[in-house]
Amino acid sequence: MAQLEIIVAPDPRLKVKSKSVKKVDDDVRALMDDLLDTMYAASNGVGLAAPQIGVAKRVLVIDMARGEEAPQPLCIANPEIIWTSDETIVNEEGCLSVPEYYAEVKRSAAVKVRYLDYENEIREMEADDFLAICIQHEIDHLDGILFVDHLSALKRNIVLRKMAKVKKQLTESEAKVPTL
User: Fold this and answer.
1) Segment (H or E) for 78
2) Active site annotation includes 80
3) Between 145 and 167, where is the model more confident?
4) 12-175 has which fold?
5) What is the pTM of this model?
6) How is the chain split into domains, by residue range?
7) Is 90 exceeded by the pLDDT of residue 179?
8) 17: three-class secondary structure by DSSP
9) Is 67 left (phi over 0), alpha (psi -120 to 50) or beta?
10) Which of 35, 99, 42, 25 has the alpha carbon at shortest distance from 61?
11) What is the torsion angle, in degrees rounded to the nearest 10, for the CA atoms of residue 81, residue 67, residue 92 and residue 107?
């Protein structure tokens, strides 16, 4: 298990549509474990998808446990939303790949998803409210969609320009640091 670097927007790797895995084997389980370690290390994350660490595979993890609660990781491969409610909800979302920016996004209030679990078993799960939002948000990552893509073009472009500027400044400041 390893803590990996989370890719920050704008980065073309975040826009790639991920490929399905053939099965959840030891390699995919190791990826799931690395995703969990990376998400937990970020401290404020409740979900992380493989593209966010540069792996274009349809794998994601979610853990909504907070504070003193015991971890309750949900490891998902090849998720497929098979039903969405007609009802929608608006919730403020953030993302580890778009740090320090939050915006209201409208999503289905409930979903039913089919997926492979950590043991390569086919599962179906119904989720509503915050869990439904998390699942939809992470599946978006697998399809090359960021939560800011749900915003108006104006708002999205402002956020991505700010992110690009910050990344450029960080890269320039790192280049000035002498290395031994």
Assistant:
1) strand 74-84
2) no
3) 145
4) Peptide Deformylase (3.90.45)
5) 0.91
6) 12-175
7) no
8) coil
9) left
10) 35
11) 10
